[in-house]
Amino acid sequence: MSSNYRLLVKNAKQVVLICNNGEKYLTKNGMQNLCVIENGSIVIGSDGLIKAVGPADTIKTQYSEASFDEVIDAAGMCVVPGLVDAHTHPVWAGDRVHEFAMKLAGATYMDVHRAGGGIHFTVEHTRAAPTSQLLVSLTNRLARMQRAGTTTVECKSGYGLELQTEIKMLEVIEAARRTLPINISSTYCGAHAVPKGKTAAEATEDVLKVQLPRLRQLMSAGTLRVDNIDVFCEKGVFDLGCTRSILQAGRDMGLNINFHGDELHPMNSAQLGAELGALAISHLEEVTDEGIAAMAAAKTAAVLLPTTAYILRLPQPRARDMLEAGVIVALGSDFNPNAYCCSMPMVMHLACVNMRMSMPEALAAATINAAYALGRSHTHGSLEVNKHGDLLVLNTSRWEHLIYQLGGHQELIRYVVIKGNIVYDNDKTMDF
Ligand SMILES: N=CN[C@@H](CCC(=O)O)C(=O)O
Ligand SMILES: [Zn+2]
């Protein structure tokens, strides 16, 4: 093969493909038995897609005549797919470190919310913030996630709760999507809380009659690309009826349903999502057995968020019950001013220790299954031919160290690669 390619990663001690039969998601035993090549190489073409992945000797022979823009000698190192963070709220102004102190002193999430803090605090600051400021902070946060191995990330609006600020947030996400290498899945979450001065019914009406119609116009004009619709379905926020009407309206506009459900109270959100054909439901700390069965049957992914349960000291989501029932389990960081975590390796560690997932399950949940939750698993989430060349090269001879070494990703991640381009080289950034 005498053509030119963008990148060769050669002689890796392990290449973790995740799967190699075009699976769109993994469940049960599939999550336990990941596809791993010992002594492997991978070739990424100038279109950024994977051209070959296999034993190093075979690739060496097949590509002996080829030239590469870049070659990474990964001897003694491991390659894993770029991580997919299936749930974040990364556009906001005003941190909530003071509320962290309140929660440590005993206040619950809803105590803070009802007292006008929480999401309301962030809404006030985000409404007041100029677009340019929000874009700078989003860019910095995404860069931080990328250095921690995230190559695809879901980004929600939801700190506007009215037309102007919701659109401002989606425009900021759109600007990042167009300019940064990280892959972004954009989510409209105008029903993230009931804005002050409105009832839930009035807020639902505003979403249905004001916000979604404008969103539809901007999407048709090509100004905005939005992939998913989200609602915070929770007692004292949006009930099942309001949630249903908003999600249905979003689905009718072509958005994927991907929402917050059964977090603090059992709401039957899982059953609703399954009935509406939701691609994913997040949180699920309070999901019922019926909800689990409905999600397994509907192939609705469960996006579990170990940081939230940890920070709020909630009961852990029932990951083992979901896994055993055959639910497609994915992971997200839930990065937001309440759960300030940019690191999917830490999320995987928490999922293993607190939710009793195995390391292969956690990696599958943070790659192929998280990509499925975003409708991207045909192009992302595993290292297979024709998928995007998004990968991490790890300074370790066994991939499990990425999860085992709590907070160790800063030293372990040597390169982050997106579409065959090195977007982070740890060696070149050691001095800051
Ligand atoms: N639960 C609702 N939304 C977020 C929290 C957002 C916030 O507190 O600002 C979550 O997923 O944890
Ligand atoms: Zn959330």
Automatic annotation (TrEMBL):
Claim: Hydrolase is one of the keywords in the record: yes
GO CC terms: cytoplasm
Residue stretches making up the Amidohydrolase-related domain: 79-423
Top enzyme category: hydrolase
Protein EC: 3.5.2.7
Superkingdom of this protein's organism: Eukaryota
One MF annotation (Gene Ontology) recorded for this entry: imidazolonepropionase activity
InterPro entries recorded: Amidohydro-rel, HutI, Metal-dep_hydrolase_composite, Metal_Hydrolase
Record's catalysed reaction(s): 4-imidazolone-5-propanoate + H2O = N-formimidoyl-L-glutamate
UniProt family annotation: Belongs to the metallo-dependent hydrolases superfamily. HutI family.
Identification of the protein by name: Probable imidazolonepropionase
Organism: Myripristis murdjan
Gene it is expressed from: AMDHD1
